[in-house]
């Protein structure tokens, strides 16, 4: 092809071009190999190569070219917009598939519709299903299937964000910098400059400003970056080539300019018809001549520049049409389907002028999608954008109606001054919204009316149609007229009815033209015509950018390695991964049954570490529990525990657990797995409301817990207990004791209905204790028990699971827990409601039931209990009891029917019903003798069960420490001892050991090379690697070992890593603690200044160890770093006393 | 996303907070059952400048946020424990 690149003009005609002419790259289009320059868009590369047709429109199959919002298909990316996508080497581009006649070239059927009208046109009763099918077929909904790296979302912040790199945006950014602000300037194209490059004056001023920009150290410029929307408190997601940046600024200045409107006349969509903005871009930015013979249509006397430039670049200027005196009435297609001529009509004559490009300047509307989105209004009308858009969000430049270059520069500078003035203090940034004419008067009295839709080219209707308002959806003028005539004369309805503006390019300009049509046809005022409110994001975003990195926090107990190493099937409960059943055979049900029988006849061990574990200390601890729970705890003696039932203010059961009194001023309370955070939170609120002196600590992740249950459990426990007498403690005793050298809490409770001990040990000793118990139980054929068997065991005992056997209406009296309510207490949270509910006639009851026969196997949770009138209740729990050999369960039935021995009907499916008999609970061991007594160790056949001692721990990403810690190193410092001291006498306790007592919140006072003390709460201090050990000897100061996983992060890329990990700005140079979400997990992060490289330390609950370690390491590896060894960090000067103050394990 | 500017903590995004309802006084002990039911079940949704409980999860702190529920503008954020005197300890 000898004319290859012949459409390129010499570089002197394109002084601000985006392309790199020194290099070329090859890509394919419809099977042909074409050349482009780096920086070319797909559209400019095709246009330069002489390609005029980029594909056909989807509905009416019109050939379309540049500036028509065309999508082309790329093998790797899917459908991409030709005008906005940068072409890259090796791209293999094709037309979107032609839905009905894909063997025919597009222009054969140009102007005809694909298939019957009714497929598409709303006015003809179009059926959207056809349209969706068509879209799917042509490749519009194709998703790329190659799995790439997950796109990181980073957080960033600055004083001022300027959106739009045109001349007013640049002026605004520089003015803000001059006032001392740190500024980010974003521009969606490849370089700054905007449309100022069109004029010689603009180019000269632009060069000046760009020189200043290059010198400005507090300005960072991001090109190829789009601001997607403006959300609360000036939160602006930015879409760049690498993905989304979650940007937050104290002030936002919008300089988004204006959108050129397409002219409306017959065949205004032919390849070769383009707006003046598009022609400028082709010529000045890509160095591509729009056409050889050009007609210019001008409605605003603004086309002289482009006309001259085109002529200078060697195009023949065939005609200039000045509206409204004359208009382009119709464009005519040549044999190849592209623009060949236009028909120009003036008052007296109609003439035909041959051309291959028509450049139209038909008026413009403010590019105000971001501004309107920031206003949070419900409706949008066409009106000038005011300079103060919303609190902290400003607008400037041609967006607010400035026209000349000087005006735009001056306005940008002035608005930037106002924006920085009002954001320089934190209170300024929060200042309430001031808007309206007074402020605009204060700024500059420009001609506001210019911002509205004046000076537009007339709309030229044609009897034969083909006057397109919206190219994406092929909406014609005639469609709008019909819709308006049918009564859809409100912009939102018009849009919904015709699909105007619903297409890929979101048709910013088509709404403006539709509003003009609407106001003309309905004789309304343009300003009132309105339009659908633009909503963010303002441009389509690839799903992988929106999705970002997959962050799903997962918690694991310390025994997790054992579970996965011994065939456990995992189930997910909230964030937790728990063993459902340990598979020993191919028959899942028999595995569960074997586990149940093990507990009933021998001994089993259950990981109950997911239970919530709270400690309540202080003189008012018992008062708090008495107030929050329904039971009485103030009269408990130390060393005992009690069932604890929690009801809310309405008397509904919300949680239960066990409360153990460890000392007069210390309680240890368990909650259900899912409720630990809620119970802790609500308890702390009640403590505040009542003004109680208590110290609450959530130990859920810091303590591992296991339930040793079964007739042989006493004998097994005796082998590991340091104090042999502890195994003989009575039912409902609580002991603090040593097990295998580990400080433990022992609760004698019986959830599963056998003799049992709940053992609570520090998390880092959890796995070790668990294995010691399994070793000790080897002779007794001990086996680990999963969640399913545990649920079966408790159901055999008739124990209720809150949330499964209760619902939002369940009072304790409905579910048989009335005994746990102590109405003698003068006041507690739920007392008033419970008194009212107790006095009322009971409407329903939770009863145990038995189903005999085969039908029982088909009963499921949530099956309905029915009588002749319809549903009257439901099944809440049901199992095939391995112990009893029949189907047992719990169900809500009407209170009147709840007699022991009575029957009720369960609906199995549409046809089948089965009878259930109400049976007293517990189903098993109704006297509860087994859990209270210590039975003799039953002799069972010795087992084939063996404990896998190999530590299965493939989770933690333990790469060797060869990644360079100077770039970005992740090093585990969990082993360092750390604890907190809390309570009214915490300060005194600190002073007694001579450490600093920091006054300011969250400041870390150094106590050595690594060690520090920090104030983490009103009466709470964090001590890291301190050497001295507080032992809680001072009354009123409570000491808790921390069991967190802690990571040291080092290196020059640390700021990038931190920006991805957390939304809170963390300065590695400031030793301040930030309590914030990191990787969606509550955590704590601290800048670690004073080392050779930037460093920070982060702490997470240890149950998230696998999740956070893997995620942080993966992020670090993407940034060129990774896991590093102790040697690597000590080479950089990081030294810790390696005495593990908190470690109880090996 | 919305930010709360908390005393001591600094600005934190809304996603770190749990809403705890409006700050309300409980009815007196001799209130009627109807008054109690009103307290338990009835919430007034009328726009107002009101003080609400907000819990900052990562730090485990309750705040009182005075907020205009019509405009969503936050007038003040106070720590809910400031009225108590932990400093009464030595």
Folded structure, characterized:
The complex is a heterodimer of chains A (about 1150) and B (about 90). Chain A is of the alpha+beta class and about 1150 residues long. In chain A, β9 (about 185), α4 and β10 form a beta-alpha-beta unit. In chain A, α3 (about 165-180) packs parallel to α8. Chain A is elongated. Mean pLDDT of chain A is about 85; it is low at about 1-5, about 100-115, about 120-125, about 425-455, about 935-960 and about 1140-1145. Chain B has about 90 residues and is mainly β. In chain B, about 10% of the residues lie in helices and about 40% in strands. Chain B has a 4-stranded antiparallel sheet with strand order 3-4-5-6, with no helix packed on it. A two-stranded antiparallel sheet of chain B has the order 1-2. In chain B, β4 and β5 form a beta hairpin. The radius of gyration of chain B is 15 Å and the shape is elongated. Residues about 85-90 of chain B have low confidence and may be disordered. The chains are: A alpha+beta (about 1150), B mainly beta (about 90). The interface of A and B includes residues 232 and 391 of A.
Comma- or semicolon-separated keywords:
heterodimer, A: 1146 residues, alpha+beta, eight-stranded mixed β-sheet, six-stranded mixed β-sheet, 56 strands, 23% helix, elongated, disordered C terminus, B: 90 residues, mainly beta, four-stranded antiparallel β-sheet, two-stranded antiparallel sheet, 6 strands, 10% helix
């Amino acid at each position: 092809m000898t004319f290859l690149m012949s459409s390129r003009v010499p570089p002197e005609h394109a002084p601000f071009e985006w392309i790199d002419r020194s290099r070329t790259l090859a890509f394919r289009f419809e099977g042909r190999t074409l050349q482009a320059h780096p920086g070319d868009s797909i559209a400019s590369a095709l246009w330069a190569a002489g390609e005029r047709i980029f594909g056909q429109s989807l509905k009416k199959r019109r050939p379309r070219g540049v500036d028509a919002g065309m999508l082309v298909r790329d093998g790797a990316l899917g459908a991409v917009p030709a005008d906005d996508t940068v072409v890259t080497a090796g791209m293999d581009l094709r037309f979107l598939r032609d839905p009905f006649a894909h063997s025919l070239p597009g222009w054969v059927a140009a102007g005809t519709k694909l298939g019957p009208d009714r497929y598409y046109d709303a006015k003809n009763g179009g059926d959207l299903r056809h349209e969706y099918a068509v879209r799917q077929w042509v490749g519009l909904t194709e998703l790329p299937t190659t799995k790439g790296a997950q796109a990181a979302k980073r957080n960033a912040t600055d004083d001022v964000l300027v959106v739009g790199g045109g001349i007013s945006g640049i002026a605004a950014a520089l003015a803000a910098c001059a006032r001392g602000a740190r500024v980010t300037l974003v521009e969606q194209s490849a370089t700054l400059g905007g449309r100022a490059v069109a004029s010689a004056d603009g180019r000269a001023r632009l060069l000046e400003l760009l020189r200043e920009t290059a010198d400005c150290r507090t300005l960072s410029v991001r090109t190829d970056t789009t601001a997607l929307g403006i959300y609360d408190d000036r939160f602006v997601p930015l879409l760049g080539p690498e993905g989304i940046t979650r940007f937050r600024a104290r002030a936002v200045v919008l300089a988004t300019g204006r959108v050129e409107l397409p002219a409306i006349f017959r065949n205004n969509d032919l390849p070769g018809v383009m707006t003046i903005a598009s022609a400028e871009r082709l010529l000045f930015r890509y160095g591509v001549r729009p056409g050889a013979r050009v007609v210019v249509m001008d409605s605003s006397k603004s086309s002289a520049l482009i006309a001259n430039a085109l002529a200078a670049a060697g195009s023949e200027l065939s005609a200039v049409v000045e509206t409204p005196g004359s208009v382009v009435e119709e464009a005519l297609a040549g044999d190849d389907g592209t623009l060949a001529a236009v028909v120009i009509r003036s008052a007296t004559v109609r003439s035909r002028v041959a051309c291959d490009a028509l450049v139209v300047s038909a008026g413009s509307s403010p590019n105000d999608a971001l501004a309107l989105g920031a206003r949070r209004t419900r409706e949008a009308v066409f009106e000038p954008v005011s300079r103060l858009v919303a609190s902290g969000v400003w607008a400037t430049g041609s967006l607010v109606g400035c026209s000349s270059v000087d005006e735009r520069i001056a306005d940008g500078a002035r608005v930037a001054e106002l924006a920085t003035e009002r954001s320089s203090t934190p209170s300024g940034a929060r200042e309430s919204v001031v808007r309206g004419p007074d402020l605009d008067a204060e700024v500059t009295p420009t001609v506001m009316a210019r911002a509205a839709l004046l000076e537009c080219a007339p709309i030229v209707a044609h009897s034969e149609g083909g006057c397109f308002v919206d190219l994406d959806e092929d909406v014609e003028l005639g469609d709008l007229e019909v819709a308006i005539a049918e009564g859809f004369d409100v912009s939102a309805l018009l849009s919904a009815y015709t699909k105007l503006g619903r297409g890929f390019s979101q048709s910013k300009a088509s709404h403006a033209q539709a509003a003009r049509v609407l106001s003309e046809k309905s004789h309304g005022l343009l300003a009132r015509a309105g339009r659908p409110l633009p909503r963010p994001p303002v441009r389509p975003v690839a799903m992988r950018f929106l999705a970002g990195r997959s962050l799903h926090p997962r918690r694991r107990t310390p025994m997790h390695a054992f579970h996965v190493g011994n065939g456990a099937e995992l189930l997910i409960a909230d964030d937790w991964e728990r063993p459902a059943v340990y598979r020993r055979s191919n028959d899942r049900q028999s595995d569960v049954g074997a586990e149940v029988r093990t507990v009933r006849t021998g001994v089993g061990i259950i990981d109950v570490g997911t239970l919530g574990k709270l400690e309540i200390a202080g003189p008012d601890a018992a008062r708090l529990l008495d107030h929050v729970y329904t039971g009485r705890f103030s009269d408990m003696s130390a060393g005992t525990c009690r069932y604890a039932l929690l009801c809310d203010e309405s008397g509904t059961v919300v949680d239960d657990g066990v409360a153990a009194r460890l000392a007069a001023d210390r309680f240890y309370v368990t909650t259900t797995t899912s409720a630990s955070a809620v119970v802790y939170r609500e308890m702390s609120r009640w403590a505040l409301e009542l003004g109680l002196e208590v110290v609450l600590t959530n130990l859920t992740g810091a303590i591992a817990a296991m339930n040793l249950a079964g007739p042989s459990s006493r004998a097994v426990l005796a082998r590991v207990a340091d104090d042999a007498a502890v195994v003989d403690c009575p039912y409902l005793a609580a002991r603090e004791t040593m097990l295998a050298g580990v400080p433990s809490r022992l609760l004698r409770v019986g959830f599963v209905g056998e003799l049992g001990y709940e053992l609570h040990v520090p998390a880092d000793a959890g796995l070790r204790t668990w294995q010691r118990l399994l070793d000790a139980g080897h002779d007794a054929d001990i086996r680990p028990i999963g969640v399913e068997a545990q649920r079966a065991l408790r159901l055999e005992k008739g124990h209720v699971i809150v949330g499964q056997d209760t619902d939002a209406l369940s009072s304790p009296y409905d579910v048989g827990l009335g005994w746990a309510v102590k109405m003698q207490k003068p006041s507690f949270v739920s007392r008033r409601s419970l008194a009212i509910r107790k006095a009322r006639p009971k409407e329903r009851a939770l009863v145990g039931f038995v189903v005999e026969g085969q039908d029982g196997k088909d009963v499921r949770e949530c099956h309905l209990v029915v009588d002749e009138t319809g549903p009257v209740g439901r099944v809440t729990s049901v199992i095939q009891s391995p112990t009893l050999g029949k189907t047992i369960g719990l169900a809500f039935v009407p209170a009147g029917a709840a007699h022991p021995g009575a029957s009720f009907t369960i609906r199995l499916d549409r046809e089948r019903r089965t009878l259930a008999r109400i049976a007293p609970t517990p189903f098993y061991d109704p006297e509860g003798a087994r859990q209270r007594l210590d039975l003799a160790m039953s002799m069972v056949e010795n087992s084939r069960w063996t404990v896998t001692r190999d530590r299965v721990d493939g989770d933690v990403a333990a790469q060797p420490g060869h990644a360079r810690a100077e770039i970005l190193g992740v090093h585990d410092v969990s082993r360092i001892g750390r604890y907190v001291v809390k309570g009214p006498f915490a300060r005194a306790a600190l002073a007694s050991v001579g450490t600093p007592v920091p006054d300011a919140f969250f400041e870390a006072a150094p106590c050595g090379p690594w060690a520090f003390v920090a104030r983490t709460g009103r009466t709470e201090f964090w001590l890291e690697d301190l050497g001295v050990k507080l032992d809680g000897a001072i009354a009123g100061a409570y000491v808790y070992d921390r069991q967190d996983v802690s990571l040291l992060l080092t290196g020059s890329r640390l700021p990038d890593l931190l920006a991805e990990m957390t939304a809170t700005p963390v300065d590695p140079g400031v030793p301040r603690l930030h309590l914030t979400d990191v990787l969606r997990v509550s955590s704590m992060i601290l800048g670690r200044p004073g080392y050779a490289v930037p460093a920070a330390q982060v702490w997470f609950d240890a149950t998230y160890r696998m999740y956070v370690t893997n995620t942080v390491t993966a992020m670090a590896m993407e940034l060129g770093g990774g896991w590093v060894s102790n040697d690597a960090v000590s080479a950089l000067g990081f030294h810790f006393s390696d005495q593990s103050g908190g470690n109880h394990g090996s | 996303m919305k930010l709360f500017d908390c005393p001591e903590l600094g600005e934190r995004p809304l996603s770190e907070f749990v809403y705890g309802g409006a700050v309300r006084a409980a009815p007196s002990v001799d209130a009627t059952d109807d008054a109690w039911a009103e307290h338990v079940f009835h919430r007034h949704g009328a726009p107002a400048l009101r003080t609400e409980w907000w819990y900052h999860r990562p730090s485990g702190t309750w705040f009182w946020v005075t907020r205009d529920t019509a405009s969503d503008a936050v007038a003040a954020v106070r720590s809910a424990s400031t009225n108590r005197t932990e400093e009464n300890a030595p």
